[in-house]
């Protein structure tokens, strides 16, 4: 059994049969975990283009699919690296940097599509800060904290739901309330997550 990774996000779907089977096939191939991480950015870029340029039900549903495919890549890269024994010396960089790029690609265009460009940028910045606080805690020798009301999986779940809801909303009224509410909730929730994670780091440091 692979050694537990203290800086690894707990994901329930890691134990799913399809995930194990797919990861095993990738591990047996020439595909590397870093390449899978790179593909996650390509899916995010496709979602960005669909949100920013198409802006109709087909585009929003396609973007929702891209969000989920990005998450599948995020799941499989770690499984191929750890369970598949293909961990590399630069894997930690590939585990973090593509995620920050993907978050920005998916959140910023939602703000513009909703008519509040600043909200998309705020959501992207605050999403990056949640990761910064987590990694900074790890740099201090603490276990990385993946908790919070707007951790990555929850951000992406809300974004996916909002894109699907927007596609439905558009068939009845050409408004964009689904995207507007979602981007504001992601920004606010990410801010709260930054605070709660920071307070957790403070408590652990004071308890040493």
From TrEMBL:
Source organism, top-level taxon: Bacteria
Regions that span the bilayer: 36-54, 110-135, 156-173, 179-202
InterPro entries, alphabetized: CDP-OH_PTrfase_TM_dom
Keyword Zinc: no
Keywords: Membrane, Transmembrane, Transmembrane helix
This protein's name: CDP-alcohol phosphatidyltransferase family protein
Lineage summary: Bacteria, Pseudomonadati, Pseudomonadota, Alphaproteobacteria, Hyphomicrobiales
């Amino acid at each position: 059994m692979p050694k537990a990774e203290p800086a690894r996000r707990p994901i329930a779907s890691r134990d799913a049969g399809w995930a194990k089977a797919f990861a095993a096939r990738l591990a047996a191939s020439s595909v590397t975990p870093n390449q899978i991480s790179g593909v996650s950015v390509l899916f995010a870029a496709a979602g960005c283009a669909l949100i920013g340029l198409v802006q109709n039900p087909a585009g929003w549903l396609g973007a929702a699919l891209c969000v989920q495919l990005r998450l599948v890549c995020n799941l499989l890269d770690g499984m191929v690296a750890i369970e598949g024994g293909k961990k590399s010396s630069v894997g930690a960089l590939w585990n973090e940097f593509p995620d920050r790029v993907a978050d920005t690609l998916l959140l910023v265009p939602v703000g513009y599509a909703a008519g509040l460009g600043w909200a998309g940028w705020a959501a992207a910045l605050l999403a990056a800060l949640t990761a910064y606080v987590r990694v900074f805690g790890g740099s201090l020798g603490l276990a990385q904290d993946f908790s919070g009301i707007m951790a990555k999986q929850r951000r992406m779940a809300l974004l996916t739901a909002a894109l699907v809801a927007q596609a439905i909303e558009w068939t009845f009224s050409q408004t964009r309330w689904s995207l507007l509410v979602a981007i504001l909730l992601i920004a606010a929730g990410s801010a709260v997550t930054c605070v709660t994670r920071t307070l957790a780091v403070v408590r652990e440091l004071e308890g040493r």
